Amino acid sequence: MGKKSQQFVLFDTSSGFALFEVVGGEEIASNEDAVQKSISDLGKFSKLVKLKAFAPFTSAEEALANAQAMEMGELTDFLRNFLEMNLPKAKEGKKNRVVLGVLDNDIGHAVQNTLGVKCQNNTAVLEMVRGCRTHFTHFIKQLSPQDLHQAQLGLSHSYSRARVKFNVNRVDNMIIQSIALLDQLDKDVNTFAMRLKEWYGWTFPELVKVVPDSYQYARLAKAIGDKASLTEESLPMIEEIVMDEDKAKEVLAAARMSMGQEISEIDLENVNDFADRVIGMAQYRSKLHSYLVSKMNSCAPNLTALIGEQVGARLISHAGSLTNLAKYPASTVQILGAEKALFRALKTKGATPKYGLLYHSTFIGRAATKNKGRISRYLANKCSIASRIDAFTEEPSSVYGHKLREQVEERLSFYKEGKAPRKNIDVMQAAKNELDETTGDGSSGAEAKTQEQDASDSDKKKKSKKAKKSKKNKKRKADEAGITEADVADEEHVAKKKKTKKSKKKKSKKSKSTE
Predict the structure, then answer these.
(1) pLDDT tens by residue, 143-170
(2) 113-135 pLDDT tens trace
(3) Rounded to whole angstroms, what are the CA distances from 404 to 320, 331, 380?
(4) Residue 145: CB partners within 8 Å, gap ≥ 6?
(5) DSSP string, 80-112
(6) Do the beta carbons of residue 63 and residue 57 sit within 8 Å?
(7) What does the pLDDT average to over 328-332?
(8) Which end of the chain is more exposed for a tag (fewer CB within 10 A), N or C?
(9) Are 124 and 28 in contact (CB under 8 A)?
């Protein structure tokens, strides 16, 4: 800061804007260490600066709007009017000696371009702002530290809410909890069903071979009870559970020829109670699965269309959130869930894993053994694209997910049959056109047609230019050699034939050497 300039410091808070006038400008410029020491002492710091003006915000919305503008480096009307009213103006014909210290260079450029006030940001300004922040409530007696804290808390909440753009329909935390509970329920249902089969198997051991499904077995165990009570009249009830007439007859025949022991009423009552628990858990598991499908379709529709709701939910759960998954590169998505195997391979210098959670996708199982690594890498690439579309699009849609799935299918057929897949740019353009048609916007289709026409026109122009150049070259050669253009064309044709013969000979030599 110059010696003859009037020095000011702009200080923005959650309660308003404050303008401080620097009194001890020479001391600050000569000795910054003294300023750093005087910041902790209010008596010394009050001799360096004095409060020029303070403009409080009238509402929380105004505070949020000014905070967002300050972050973007924009000058609001509120701040511009405040500076125009309180900064001294230069006299006509004289240079403005006012220097304003700011924290952000972007704000400084905006103030300098709008008001013509010189702004700077250096270590001295930073120290002055730090002192103003420390002793701010002492300069403004009407503002208590508690009020300032409440204003900061309210502004931080509203600012964070505006940045996050919270949407209750796209909460990935519910997906993380649902897939974790679903995996736990699968383990519990299997454990309890195995216990029920062992318990009820004492009286009816043949039922497990006829009905291996756990849910149907639990329903049959409760419906049958004592196997001695089964008759021909029980066939409709058994058929309703197993949904197969032949299997119902097998159950009845197995009950008549069963080698199991008889069971008392008290034991049968306990078996029925336990069967009710297993049935309830299985039914809740199906409800939870449908809930997960609906949440995945609303939160990550493209990822769901590409690899399914369960694998997609496991990827989101392992990454921590959909945003974190979108930030991962495709190489990380490919081995997500196989971190232990990766670090073990790096430690022992062995082969790194080719896939992690993506192994549960149907594409990996359908690929041949030699192509599993290639298809997993390709699938991870498409998953990364789908997750980024889901995370950052404003209107969720599954159009891109279906197109990406078609690409993976085409890549699988390419590995099996050698059929060349479509180019990625063509598939994405088709997805964009389909999305525009579903939203009712037909402008993009017309734009695509005009782009195709422009491309064809440019190709025609290029071809015509090449033809003109070749004609000029032929004329020039003919004039130099004193022959006709037809003779030149014949010579060029002979030269082309020689080049093709040489290239064929080279290719044949290479093929023989490789053999």
Answers:
(1) 888 888 888 899 888 888 777 665 555 6
(2) 888 888 888 888 888 888 888 88
(3) 24, 18, 11
(4) 137
(5) HHHHHHHSPPPPTTS---EEEE-S-HHHHHHHH
(6) yes
(7) 93
(8) C
(9) yes
